[in-house]
Amino acid sequence: MQASSVNEPKKRRGSRTVPVSYEQKLKRTEGLLDLAHAELDQIFQTAADGMCIIDKKYNTLRVNQTFASLFGVNRNDVVGKKCYEEFPGPACHTDGCPMERIFKGVERLEYEVEKPRRDGLRIPCILTATPLLDPSGKLIGIVEEFKDIRGLKRIQNELRLSFEKLQKTMEEVIQAVAMIVETRDPYTAGHQKRVADLACAIATEIGITGDKIMGIRTSATVHDVGKIYVPAEILSKPGKLNKKEFALIEDHPKIGYEILKEIEFSWPVAQAVLQHHERIDGSGYPQGLSGEDIILEARILGVADVVEAITSYRPYRPALGLDAALQEIENNRGILYDADAVNACLRFI
User: Fold this and answer.
1) Which of 148, 183, 213 is the last residue before a domain boundary?
2) Which of 94, 109, 113, 220 lies at a CB distance of 3.0 to 4.6 Å from 129, suitable for a disulfide?
3) What CA–CA distance (Å, rounded) separates 336 from 332?
4) What is the DSSP string of 56-81?
5) How many angstroms separate the first and last alpha carbons of the chain?
6) Which residue from 221, 208, 206, 139 is spatially nearest to 172, judged by alpha carbons?
7) Long-range residue pairs from 276-279, CB within 8 A, at least 24 positions apart, any chain
8) Among 27, 227, 243, 244, which one carries the catalytic annotation?
């Protein structure tokens, strides 16, 4: 008798194999597909973001419950309708339409949009649009996803208001510091403000814009803060200063720098204050810097400071007038003073 193979499974006594029919296999497969479809539908309906599926003819195929709640619509009322009729927006019938852009080959779009509701309320959203493809890879429509960013906008607005309040406080502190200096030196009262106005005008004429102008104004408004260290009798002395007294005056940019350097301005305020008496040929103070080693803000401030000082009264001399001030910067253009700043000042005045 031939021995049975060791790999042949042993049959249990009394057991028999029951064949599975094609119909049973098909029913089981359909049940699994229905379950998978139900799970996918649940994921679609309960997604945190509003979702909308649109075919190539702009028909709305499906929207989820989040979308319906977000835009105040009934899902059954919008399915089958044209998207541009139910959810009109500024991009409809333009090249900016997500469908049109995906037709032209864009693989994914993401941008901010305000989506209007039927009740007139506008909902700020991040719109993400992706192609919808059939199993063969053919484009059959798009899937649009809308992320509600009203909470983010609210936070951004609160931050903006907080920043504006902080900026206003800073400006008021800067003005207070400027007034402290001027109360000790009444002969130069208003000097820093006038220098700030002229420096901003020069900067604008050069082509500087935006936030940098604010930095120049701030630097100019406190450029003489170091004079708080100089005795008042020296500041208001009617005669010529001796070497020791002039040395104290020359220290004021360094003192101003020490006062301001720990403040975290958005601009190089402390450096501009430190360098505003530097000159292009290296003859200035306190560091003897020259050329472009002097920051642009300080070069502009230097021109404005000289013009304002010459045109104003001082204890040791009368005001020399605008013509004398312009003659000074023109004669020393590119020598003591930055040529671009001088040219801008001459054009402006």
Assistant:
1) 148
2) 109
3) 5
4) TTSBEEEE-HHHHHHHT--HHHHTTS
5) 123
6) 221
7) 276/219, 276/223, 276/301, 276/302, 276/305, 277/250, 277/253, 277/302, 277/305, 278/302, 279/335, 279/336, 279/337
8) 227
Whichever domain contains 116, its CATH number is 3.30.450.20
Answer yes or no: do 142 and 193 share one domain.
no
Sheet holding 50-55, edge to edge: 60-63, 50-55, 139-148, 122-133, 109-116
Higher-confidence residue of 349 and 344: namely 344
Long-range contacts of residues 130-135, Cβ cutoff 8 Å, at least 24 apart:
130/102, 131/102, 131/107, 132/53, 132/55
pLDDT at position 6: 46
User: Which SS3 state, helix, strand or coil, does residue 92 take?
Assistant: coil
Range of weakest confidence among 2-11, 49-58, 112-121, 274-283: 2-11
227 is catalytic: yes
Residue 333 structural domain: 163-348
**Is 337 in the same domain as 305?**
yes
Distance CA 40, CA 232 (A): 81
Mean pLDDT lowest among 15-19, 156-160, 278-282: 15-19
Instruction: Say if 4 falls within a structural domain.
Output: no
Using DSSP, state whether 113 is helix, strand or coil. strand
Residue 229 and residue 141 share a domain: no
Whether 197 and 304 map to the same domain: the answer is yes
Average pLDDT over residues 95-115: 88
CB 71 within 8 A of CB 117: yes
Contact 259, 274 (CB under 8 A): no
Q: Scanning the structure block, which residue is given the tokens 């009740």?
A: 119
- Looking at the structure, tell me whether residues 142 and 213 fall in a common domain: no
Identify the band that residue 16 occupies on the pLDDT scale cut at 50, 70 and 90.
low
> Tokens at residue 314, please?
């001082």
How many structural domains compose the chain? 2
Residues 142 and 182 in one domain: no
3-state secondary structure of 2: coil
